[in-house]
Design goal:
Length: 876
């Protein structure tokens, strides 16, 4: 057996199959580009589906690759077994209707055992086959020369995912020796059993049947080969490590973690923690590098879950601040030989990780404290964490439900999954009800599904046309006419009105004839694609088959076009300034403003925001031509047109090319030259959810009015603070702010002196009850902070004490209670405040040694003080 690094094994594999006439397919990004069925690329064959299903004919039917992959279906096992990973590399060779079983088996055995290649011990090779696959048996036995004892027939050796291609497979195992277990069939100590001795290193799938819908199998016209060998696993065999984690692909990360803590990987109870961190940081490094970002749904949620799982186990290694981001350079250093592109994203990856870790560390202590409290409560009664509690941990503290489940399992508890789902559904329903999305245009009745008439949109070329009324709908029924005052929906044979879509609002305008005038208030697309005009008849009668003039509001359309072209410029500028990870996550293009949501991990500072705004305006001032053409989607992709993730496109697409800066697929309306946008001004930047930021901006005359208003306010401020020169305004404002700050300090000092004066005046009110100093009284304090300072002053003068103070200001009552530790076994501050606050129509509570509350009933302060005195006396 050769002494090889993981990187050398990967390259050797590709070189071997290249020498056998295979084409090397590059490792594809982890985020699928053309496959909406996958969250992640999860195998070597996942990126080759286009070849296997016939959509694309490969230049060479023999293909090999080393594909980075992510699988998270059994993440709870990662760290607690020798070979479970969320990130791994799959080495594979594939035949699209070219060679079959004989060559596949020959190739695999040669690569594994030939002295020129891996040079594994032939006597330690075992294989499994399907019991009915006599061809595979003959090839292994007669061609390769394995004896019967090393060919095991297993019923499960059949690759089948339901209807579609399927076939038997053969798995290759390597005997790691008696150090990993004695042969014992009763304990599955055989190739194909659950053990660590006979390690599966390669799986060869022979796709030769079609699984029909009636569950019968017929031979495929072309037979295919699909194989997979985990790089981490074969590396552990070559390097003779106990698990995949000790290979040179992963162990350098573990060593880095060791250097950051005083706990060692050799301490068995901590091994899972090191494994989890090293695996998960590989996953998130490559996932973020390929464009994914942590968020609250989809693949972003998976990333967040992995980061928070790693952080959780990191706290057990004494990490109390972000640490994962410091491991990214080690991951890159190990992998840069084959994945140099990840190094280009190093800073982005570290920034995203650090930001996400910081957010979780802010809440983990409080959330974990609550979780452990809930676990103790569950242990004493129902042995199940309630769904509403699990949801609170998820919603308030950012604990993924899978993380809570792991905590529960550690304490032999279960999670109320159904209750959690109900809470999630209730939240989603509340969100739906909160959205103002219901309108008569969106609540379409079944009548629109039955309408078959054509409706052509001509609004790209025309803003006013002569057309014919094809269909009129009122109150969910097709009618012949609408009269003055009626509201309904209309379909025209041709229309210049843009229907709301792609983030762009609909056109408004008028439909008119000699017999009527009708306002168009909204336009949407009917289920069968026609433009559906929401109308209100201002005068006369609108009839079916009437000849009408359809005229859009050109002023609004012009403003909308400016804003839409500006969003395209903004999208590209964001990529240029922030990075390629930026992708559109939603938009609104209206006449008065534009809103652009995009993937990004943190708040954008003012300096960067100014840079973004400046670059957009540069492109406007450069007067770039806006060329719009329709073309086949493949042609558009070759031009580099940007498609929006999740959008569905037809065979023919509309390409908006702001030459030579931005090119996107888009169905919206645009100006013909960027100079027509006029001016671009950002009005706000905010977060709309984890990993998604929002920029709102204005253009054209709206931007001009906005800036003019600001200038008017500036002139007013200048006049108010009595300065003449514009440049003097800032220095005068700073001077005034410093003066106010100084005065506030003086006021605060005076309040402290007043508080001390009160302290000396009411010292005589302190009572001694059974050795405990008791003070129950009112003081002057205009806010709870001052009240706390007064209470702290009393505390510093006493040893065993119960202090209860009340104050009132602006019709509000405040109270505070402090109890020394040696007295809390008799009376507790939280209980005192909880029971006394309702007497002043308020509430409060806290710890046993300190509590606060408030109320609004000033008239009952005296009675409340007497209640508290009696309560203390009866307990102390």
């Amino acid at each position: 057996m050769k002494n090889l690094t993981g990187n050398e094994i990967r390259q050797m594999f590709l070189d071997f199959f290249k020498s056998k006439g295979h084409q090397i397919e590059p490792s594809a990004p982890l985020v699928p580009i053309d496959d909406d069925t996958l969250l992640w690329i999860n195998s070597g064959v996942a990126t080759l589906k286009k070849y296997f299903d016939g959509r694309v004919i490969p230049d060479n039917p023999k293909i090999t690759n080393a594909q980075k992959s992510i699988r998270t279906n059994d993440v709870e096992n990662v760290g607690f077994t020798a070979r479970h990973h969320t990130f791994f590399e799959m080495l594979g060779n594939f035949s699209i209707g070219d060679y079959f079983k004989k060559e596949a088996i020959e190739f695999a055995y040669e690569f594994l055992t030939s002295p020129e290649w891996l040079d594994l011990d032939e006597d330690k090779i075992y294989v499994t086959i399907h019991p009915e696959d006599e061809e595979a048996y003959a090839l292994w036995h007669d061609m390769i020369g394995l004896d019967d004892g090393r060919i095991i027939r297993i019923e499960g050796n059949f690759w089948d995912i339901g209807v579609g291609p399927s076939g038997p497979n053969t798995e290759i195992f390597y005997d790691r020796g008696e150090a990993y277990g004695q042969n014992d069939p009763d304990n599955e100590m055989y190739p194909g059993g659950e053990n660590e001795r006979y390690l599966e290193i390669w799986n060869l799938v022979f796709s030769e049947f079609n699984h029909n819908e009636d569950n019968t199998y017929t031979p495929l016209p072309k037979q295919n080969i699909d194989t997979g060998m985990g790089l981490e696993r074969i590396t552990s065999v070559i390097q003779n490590t106990e698990t995949n984690y000790e290979t040179d692909l992963i162990y350098p990360i573990i060593e880095k973690v060791e250097s950051m803590t005083d706990i060692r990987y050799t301490q068995d109870e901590y091994k899972p923690h090191f494994k989890i961190i090293s695996d998960h940081v590989r996953t998130v490094t490559f996932a973020i590098g390929d464009g994914a970002l942590p968020s609250s749904e989809g693949r972003g949620y998976i990333l967040r879950r992995l980061i928070r799982r790693a952080v959780r186990f990191g706290t057990k290694l004494n990490f109390d601040e972000p640490f994962m981001y410091k491991l990214v350079p080690i991951v890159i250093d190990v992998m840069r030989e084959f994945y140099p592109e990840v190094e280009q994203k190093a800073q982005l990856i570290q920034d995203v990780l650090k930001s996400e870790e910081s957010r979780f560390f802010e809440t983990i202590e409080e959330g974990e404290k609550l979780l452990l409290q809930l676990i103790e409560e569950a242990k004493s009664n129902q042995h199940e964490l309630k769904g509403r509690d699990v949801f609170k941990l998820y919603d308030t503290f950012g604990f993924p439900v899978e993380l809570t489940r792991e905590y529960a399992e550690e304490h032999q508890l279960t999670v109320d999954e159904e209750g959690f789902k109900q809470e999630m559904q209730a939240q989603q329903q509340r969100a739906r009800e909160a959205r103002n999305v219901s309108s008569s245009m969106q609540v379409q009745s079944d009548v629109f599904n039955e309408i078959e008439v054509d409706s052509e949109f001509v609004g790209y070329e025309s803003t006013s046309i002569q057309s014919t009324v094809s269909v009129i709908v009122k109150d969910g029924s097709i009618v012949d006419a609408l009269n003055e005052g009626d509201i309904g929906q209309v379909i025209l044979k041709q229309t210049p009105f843009y229907a709301e879509s792609g983030g762009q609002v609909a056109d408004r305008g008028v439909i008119a004839s000699n017999e009527c005038e009708v306002n168009v208030t909204q336009v949407s697309k009917a289920p069968k694609g026609q433009h559906l005009h929401q109308v209100e008849v201002k005068s006369g009668t609108l009839k079916t088959e009437a000849e009408v003039n359809a005229q859009i509001d050109t002023k609004k359309r012009t403003s909308i076009m400016k804003n839409h072209t500006a969003t395209h410029l903004l999208h590209q500028v964001l990529k240029d300034v922030l990075g390629d990870h930026v992708n559109q996550a939603g938009s609104l293009v209206d006449a008065d403003k534009l809103r652009f949501d995009f993937s990004h991990f943190g708040k954008i500072d003012e300096e960067t925001l100014s840079q973004i705004e400046e670059k957009v305006n540069e492109k406007i001032f450069e007067a770039l031509n806006v060329d719009i053409q329709s073309m086949p989607i493949d042609e558009a992709k070759k031009l580099g047109a940007m498609a929006l993730f999740g959008e569905k496109y037809g065979d023919i697409v509309r390409v908006v090319n702001i030459e030579p800066y931005s090119i996107e697929l888009c169905g919206g309306t645009h100006v013909t030259n960027t100079s027509q946008v006029g001016l671009f001004k950002i009005t706000s930047e905010s977060g709309t959810g984890a990993g998604v930021r929002r920029i709102e901006a204005i253009t054209g005359h709206v931007a001009y009015d906005y800036l003019n208003d600001y200038f008017d306010k500036f002139k007013s401020i200048k006049s108010t603070i009595n300065v003449k020169a514009d440049d003097d305004v800032i220095s005068k404002a700073k001077s005034m702010a410093e003066e106010i700050k100084s005065q506030e300090k003086e006021i605060a000092q005076l309040k402290k002196e007043i508080a001390k004066s009160q302290s000396s005046n009411i010292a005589q009110e302190i009572e001694d009850i059974n050795g405990v100093k008791v003070l129950v009284t009112t003081v002057e304090a205009d806010n709870p902070k001052v009240l706390r300072e007064i209470a702290d002053d009393y505390k510093s003068q006493l040893k065993s004490y119960v202090i209860y103070l009340m104050s009132h200001h602006d019709d509000k009552v405040s109270m505070i209670c402090n109890v020394s530790d040696d007295v809390t076994d008799r009376i507790q501050a939280g209980q005192v405040v909880k029971e006394s606050a309702p007497l002043v129509d308020g509430r409060g509570g806290g710890r046993k040694d300190s509590a606060q509350g408030g109320g609004t009933n000033i008239d009952n302060i005296t009675n409340t003080l007497q209640f508290v005195k009696d309560m203390i006396k009866s307990n102390v």
